[in-house]
Design brief:
The protein contains 6 helices and 13 strands. By secondary structure, it is α/β, with parallel strands linked by helices. The N and C termini lie far apart (61 Å).
């Protein structure tokens, strides 16, 4: 059985950057947000790689990448991501910081998915990140599924094994550091991926050229989404560095450990 796999993926600031929240005229945001380099959300990246692997294993399957993000940043990131795996892009032009309302994001993503031409709901698998490096709300993907009328949902997924009849087993994280194996009779379903089991695919110029034929037209046709900002804060500051160094000779390990414990208690 073939699948129509839709991967919901947002953009997040490069984790090597220093992020400083600020209050702007439109609400909370990040200092110099427009200048911060972005990457695809790590959790969503796992979902994209797993989707591409599943599509290769099931001939006739297709992968769409649906992303709510500023078009300019999305274009920069896709120049790299497009060389990893084949997909069709559905772009929604909107904010991508960690202060957007999860419900409004879910509504914009669900509308974009519902409008995909030729999408078969009976073959639909919605993939995405279990959490997010920008928001970690853990609710957006669930609400996307609910808006699409999909009640079979799995969160914290590490592996999906599909049988010959289209039914699949899901290795899903539960409380206490344990896993459970759930069985689903088939699509439609929603999977929020944790880490997955695949490494990041190498860059392929051939895949990149194939994707670029559709990426630029999709970016040009991206519709704007009005996603409100949620929440506010009174003040925020980067933690100050603190370093107290002493050079002591001939100190026993027990004394060193005790001094560390006393320092932590202070």
């Amino acid at each position: 059985m073939e699948f129509h796999i839709v991967v919901c993926a947002g953009l997040v600031p490069d984790p090597l950057q220093t992020l400083e929240p600020v209050m702007g005229p439109a609400g909370p945001g990040l200092k110099n947000e427009a200048l911060l380099p972005s990457v695809i959300d790590p959790w969503a990246a796992h979902a994209l790689f797993e989707a591409a692997h599943l599509a290769r294993a099931r001939p006739g399957s297709k992968v769409w990448l649906v992303s709510l993000a500023p078009k300019a940043k999305l274009q920069q990131v896709l120049m790299v991501v497009a060389q990893k795996v084949p997909f069709d892009l559905v772009a929604v032009d909107g904010p991508a910081n960690g202060f957007t309302d999860a419900s409004a994001c879910a509504a914009a993503l669900a509308d974009a998915i519902a409008a995909i031409p030729g999408l078969d709901r009976q073959k639909l698998l919605v993939f995405g990140g279990w959490e997010s490096a920008s928001r970690a709300a853990g609710t957006t993907l669930q609400m996307v599924g609910e808006r699409l009328g999909i009640t079979e949902q799995f969160q914290g997924v590490d592996a999906v094994t599909v049988g010959a009849d289209g039914a699949f087993e899901v290795l899903e994280r539960i409380e206490g550091g344990r896993h459970q194996v759930a069985t689903c009779s088939g699509a439609p379903a929603v999977c929020g991926w944790a880490t997955g089991s695949l490494h990041e695919p190498p860059n392929s110029p051939q895949v990149g050229m194939m994707n670029m034929r559709t990426l630029m037209p999709a970016l040009q046709k991206a519709r704007a989404a009005s996603v409100p900002l949620a929440g506010a804060f009174g003040a925020a500051a980067v933690p100050s560095a603190r370093r107290d160094t002493r050079v002591v000779k001939d100190m026993s390990p027990d004394a060193i450990a005790q001094e560390i414990v006393e320092w932590i208690r202070q």
